[in-house]
Design brief:
2 domains; Lyase 2-enoyl-coa Hydratase, Chain  A, domain 2; three-stranded mixed sheet; alpha/beta; six-stranded mixed sheet; 2-enoyl-CoA Hydratase, Chain A, domain 1; globular; 10 helices
Length: 276
Amino acid sequence: MIAQARSEIPNMSEALVITTQEERLLWLTLNRPDKRNPLSSDMIAALSEALRAGYEDNATRVIIINSAGVAFSAGHDLAETQRRTDESFEDWQQRIKALLAACADMMSGIVHAPKPVIASVHGIASAAGCQLVSACDLALAADTATFCTPGVNIGTFCTTPLVGIGRNLSRKHALEMALTGDQFNAATAERFGLINRIERADNLIHATRQLALSIATRSAESIARGKSAFYRQVEMPLDDAFALANEVMLQNLTAAGDAQEGVAAFFEKRPPEWRD
């Protein structure tokens, strides 16, 4: 059973990301609650490794990212981005560049993954933590959750988080978050399009589980093909998008596999038997 809220501080020997297999669901729990689960280089490496394992595991149909403690993620660890006393300017820049590249690779990996990834958010999702929510295919949030891109408050700007957030929200809503640096509540995040829906805090895990289990009953083959096509076509001009969608639909309807089984099961009024 997944804990509803992990407010206790775990033994620091525990993994940065706790993996829990539940039926055909893989829960990945960010587990540095004493620091509000920052996306440090170590956390990014641990989460990226856990995600890759989930993508490759045939027993996993849906991946869920949630968190321990009172926050989803506070974003990058600002202490890690500071120049070290024995570090040259060039080495400092290269280290930050590597951190940002690893984070971008993880975010884009979620988008390009063959399996659905759901964010289950309680507490604050800030900066790169908010970006992580935007990278996931679906997001549910507790009614107490908040979201922000506060870089402007400290003289920077949440440029990289806006890559994902700006693809979820309208430009004006994304820029309202970035230009003000304010915290936005779950209702506003839902209205903006950052999350799918709001749940009571004490029902968040249950609601996330039910959504994920529903998706897990569908064909993994059709979901992988459809998810890939969706993200590709939304970046295309209209005519190119229709051409791609038509080709994918043609493959779905004529190729041997789950589509043929699903159509046959529909006409025969029986549950489909997916190959995977």
